Amino acid sequence: MKYIRYAFWAVLAVVLICVSLANRGPVTLNLLPADLAELLNFQYSATVPVFIVILGGIIAGLLIGFVWEWLREHKHRAAAAQRKTEVKRLERQLKKTQNERDKDKDEVLAILDQSA
């Protein structure tokens, strides 16, 4: 399974390198449309290779998706933490009850009851 993972990452790296080499042409990115930039007197643009725009879009999409899922699953994580706390509390209560039950018994019989 480890080799399949390495093969996947190698193929992905080759594909990304090929896409990057095939899309080296420059492109100008503007922060705002030209009319709005003139109106606000704020114009920012950058000239970058196309592959940076492509890979940046992929990375931004992945990050937005990860954050969205993390926020969406918050209620499940909170419920799991609450259940974990409840289980620990019940285990402590069970141990206390067993100790109270076994305080008058012989040590050997108490150990046998605990193992069953």
TrEMBL record:
Pfam families: LapA_dom (PF06305). Residues 80-107 form a coiled coil. The keyword Ribosomal protein does not apply. The chain crosses the membrane at residues 48-68. InterPro entries: LapA_dom. Keywords: Cell membrane, Coiled coil, Membrane, Transmembrane, Transmembrane helix. GO terms for cellular component: plasma membrane. It comes from the Bacteria. Signal peptide: none annotated. Residues 23-94 form the Lipopolysaccharide assembly protein A domain. This is Lipopolysaccharide assembly protein A domain-containing protein. It comes from Alloyangia pacifica.
